[in-house]
Design brief:
The protein is of the alpha+beta class and 378 residues long. It is built from 13 helices and 15 strands. The chain folds into two domains: 3-170 and 337-363, Gcn5-related N-acetyltransferase (GNAT) (Aminopeptidase); 173-333, 3-Layer(aba) Sandwich (Aminopeptidase).
C-alpha cells in the first residue's frame, strides 16, 4: 500500500531513484541538492514523496518560509505596505508551506514511469493531504503551489478539492530553436526587431564572452553584480547566496555554466545557465547597470544564448519569467503558470479570497529590467 511522507533532505533519496521520476529534467536531484546545501536564507527545503515499501512512486520538492504578503504587490500600494512593514515587521508575514521550489521554473511532480492518469491523481491527492497535515502539525498558516503548469489538468482537478484557489502566475517563455545559424534567427524576426538586434549585436562584439564552469577569480564580482541587479528588482522572492551559484556549477558538471561578459578586464555581466541537448535554461542574469544600455547587455546575452543553442543542437531556449512583451518580440511563446493557495484559517482565507486581485502577478508585464526571482527576468 502506498503512503505519502515528508523528507527533511533530498540526500535520503538516491539520485537515480529521484531522477527516474523526472524524465530529462535539468532541475533534477543534483540541482535540488545544490539548492538545499547552498542554504537560502529564510527558506527550509522539504520534499513530499509517495512510497510503496521502498519503491518511490511520486515526489515533489517543497519549501517553508515566512511569506511577505506584499511580495507581488506593485505600484502605489507597494509604498503603503512597505511603510506598514517598517512599523510592524510581523504583520505582513505568514508562515507558508509551498510545493515547488524558490529557484525552479515550475512546480514539477515526478511520477513512476508507466503510471496511469488515475495513479498519478491518487498520488498527488495523497501529497496534498500530507501537505495539509504537515502544515497543521507545524502551525503553518498558508498553503501554496508555486508556478503550477496551467496546461496540466491534474492541478485543476485536484486543487479545488483541497480548498485551494488559483491566481494567474507569471508565465515562462520558450524559444524553439530552428535556425542553422544566428543570422538565420535574426532574419526570422520582424523588420524593426531585425534592425535593432543587428545593431545591438555589433555593439556587443566589444565584449569578451566566456563560458565558464567555475567562479575562480570572479566570485566577488559575481556577488557584486547580483546585489546590484537585486536592488533594481520590482519585486523579489528569494535572495541567493554566492554559494548557490558555486554549488550549482560544482554539482552539475557539463550542464551548468556561468557565461561572463567582460570589457577591459572588468566583469560587466554574468549569466547562470543550465544546458543539455533538449534545452538551455536561463537561471539568472546579473548586470552592471552603469553600462547596461551602452553594451546592450540583456540583448547581447540573449543572442549569445541563442547562438549557443544552435552550436550545441539544443532544441529550446527557456528564458524564464518577466519581460513578456520583449520575449514575444524576440520570437518566444509564453507558457502559463498558476499560483494555487489557501489559508488554513477559514476567516482569513475568506479575506484573502476578496482581496487577492491586488496581488495578481499578471497585473503588470514588463515590470522592470531584472526582477530577481531566480530566473532571467531581464
Amino acid at each position: 500500500m502506498s503512503q505519502a511522507q515528508v523528507l527533511a533532505s533530498i540526500d535520503v533519496v538516491a539520485p537515480a531513484d529521484w531522477d527516474a521520476l523526472f524524465v530529462r529534467e535539468l532541475e533534477g536531484h543534483a540541482y535540488l541538492r545544490a539548492v538545499e546545501h547552498a542554504g537560502l536564507a529564510g527558506f527550509r527545503q522539504v520534499y513530499f514523496v509517495v512510497r510503496e515499501g521502498i519503491r518511490l512512486l511520486a515526489a515533489v520538492p517543497a519549501f517553508v518560509t515566512d511569506y511577505r504578503l506584499d511580495t507581488t504587490v506593485q505600484g502605489g500600494l507597494r509604498c503603503i505596505t512597505r511603510q506598514v512593514a517598517a512599523l510592524f515587521p510581523k504583520l505582513l508575514r505568514i508562515p507558508m508551506l509551498a510545493l515547488g521550489s524558490p529557484v525552479t521554473e515550475r512546480c514539477r511532480v515526478g511520477y513512476a514511469p508507466g503510471a496511469t492518469p488515475e495513479q498519478r491523481a491518487a498520488w498527488l491527492d495523497a501529497i496534498l493531504t500530507c501537505m495539509d497535515a504537515y502544515a497543521a502539525e507545524h502551525q503553518l498558516g498558508m498553503l501554496a503551489i508555486k508556478d503550477a503548469p496551467r496546461d496540466e489538468p491534474i492541478w485543476q482537478r485536484l486543487c479545488p478539492r483541497h480548498g485551494l484557489r488559483s491566481l494567474p502566475g507569471l508565465p515562462g517563455a520558450m524559444l524553439a530553436i530552428a535556425w542553422p545559424n544566428l543570422a538565420g534567427y535574426i532574419d526570422s524576426l520582424g523588420a524593426a526587431t531585425r534592425k535593432d538586434m543587428r545593431r545591438k549585436w555589433r555593439v556587443g562584439q566589444e565584449l569578451q564572452i566566456a563560458w565558464r564552469t567555475d567562479l575562480d577569480g570572479i566570485a566577488d564580482d559575481v556577488e557584486r553584480l547580483y546585489r546590484e541587479t537585486l536592488t533594481h528588482a520590482e519585486f523579489t522572492f528569494e535572495q541567493l547566496p554566492l554559494d548557490y551559484f558555486e554549488q550549482v556549477l560544482r554539482s552539475l558538471p557539463g550542464r551548468a555554466y556561468c557565461v561572463t561578459y567582460t570589457k577591459a578586464d572588468k566583469l560587466v555581466a554574468f549569466n547562470l545557465v543550465l544546458q543539455d541537448r533538449d534545452r538551455l535554461l536561463d537561471k539568472f542574469l546579473g548586470m552592471d547597470y552603469s553600462v547596461m544600455g551602452r553594451y546592450n547587455l540583456y540583448h547581447v546575452s540573449w543572442l549569445e544564448n541563442v547562438r549557443r543553442c544552435i552550436e550545441k543542437g539544443t532544441g529550446v531556449y527557456e528564458s524564464g519569467q518577466g519581460l513578456h512583451h520583449e520575449k514575444v518580440r524576440l520570437g518566444s511563446r509564453l507558457v502559463a503558470n498558476s499560483l494555487w493557495y489557501r489559508h488554513r484559517n477559514r476567516f482569513l482565507d475568506g479575506v484573502f479570497a476578496r482581496v487577492d486581485g491586488l496581488a495578481r502577478l499578471d497585473r503588470g508585464d514588463d515590470v522592470g529590467p531584472a526582477p530577481a526571482t531566480g530566473t532571467r527576468h531581464g
